[in-house]
Amino acid sequence: MIVPTDPEASAKGALSLRGLTKQYGALRAVDDISLDIGEGEFFTIVGPSGSGKSTLVRLLAGLETPNAGSLLLGGTDITQVPANRRPTAMVFQSLALFDHRSVGENIEFSLKMKGVDPATRRVRALDLLGLVRLPEDYYERSVTQCSGGERQRIAMARALASDPEILFFDEPLSALDYRLRKTLEIELRELHQRTGKTFVYITHSLEEAMIMSDRIAIMRAGRFVQLGTPRDIYQRPINRFVAGFMGEVNILAVQDTEQGPRYAGLDCDAGSAAGAYAVLRPEALLPGDAGDTAFDAQVDQRMLLGSRTQYQLHVGELRLTSEVGASGATDLEPGRSHRFSFDRTALTWVSE
Ligand code: ADP
């Protein structure tokens, strides 16, 4: 029997991890993680390959058993409840659709397993097609006739069919091309808003996580390095590892010289932070010498990104990215040297 351990925590889709640990031999793939995920939250775990994301999400979904720790859903201990008896569902990267069956049969699969009658299943499947923005006539179509994006939507509809309290996603978009991924990121966020369910998502892309999530955990070697809102993580990365996940950011190492601490490769005064790293966002590094730290850099490339212009630059071995808004200078010639600058106040300092 399942006994509620915390009658106060009655939110159905709230998930609590208490010291969750999974070991493979001597390796702690998930190392003593405690966390509360709120009902209706979109929570994303970001980390490089091998950091333990899949193991963690498989523990949460009941596909793996922890060596230590416990898992509570809505205040009820579900640590020992097998995956198929949990009110949760998972969308895999492979999607695992049945290719020899119709879209409708795929969506209805879990309902059929539960013995729901065909007429009720059909009504539910048609509802779900609408929810994931697919036309009703897809019900009869074979999944082999569907595009990559449509298959994603079918997999989501199938996961939602049993009305789970939590949906887990294991890198569902990572095999898709860039444009389709961007579209589906927005669709996933909207689907989350429409369903109000708890989503737990894993990805190696912090950019993807930023677009969709309420909160993000950055994972490394089985542990969370940082946990916060997308804004927290973007504005205050806790260390160089997290900052390095932020795509285009510039990371300036500070080294001691005879003239005092200077940015390695830039040879500009860096105040008194030798040994630390300064994170400089591309939009804070601008053409001209308005900022307090200015230097000459060679412009390698100019890229138009809608309303912004991005420049790739280098100073000796150091490569940098500058991003200028619509009102800024957008006419710098690649192949030439230009003056660039930033303000010290725009830097975020991180440790190794
Ligand atoms: P990620 O999803 O972040 O790529 P994983 O959770 O797949 O990371 O793996 C974390 C670590 O656990 C890796 O070092 C991986 O080799 C190891 N690992 C994962 N599954 C197993 C397993 N079934 N047996 C042994 N080691 C495993």
Tell me about this structure.
- This protein has helices spanning 53-61, 103-113, 118-131, 148-160, 178-195, 206-212, 230-235, 240-244; strands at residues 15-24, 27-37, 42-46, 68-73, 76-77, 88-91, 166-170, 198-203, 215-220, 223-228, 250-257, 260-263, 277-280, 286-287, 293-305, 308-315, 318-324, 337-342, 348-350.
- By secondary structure, it is of the alpha+beta class.
- The strands form four sheets. The chain has a six-stranded mixed beta sheet with strand order 6-7-8-3-9-10, with helices on both faces. A five-stranded antiparallel beta sheet has the order 14-18-15-16-17, with no helix packed on it. It has a four-stranded antiparallel beta sheet with strand order 2-1-4-5, covered by helices on one side.
- Strand 11 (250-257) and strand 12 (260-263) form a beta hairpin.
- Helix 2 packs parallel to helix 4 and helix 3 packs across helix 4 (148-160).
- The longest helix is centred in the middle third of the chain and has 18 residues, at 178-195.
- The two termini are 48 Å apart.
- It binds adenosine-5'-diphosphate.
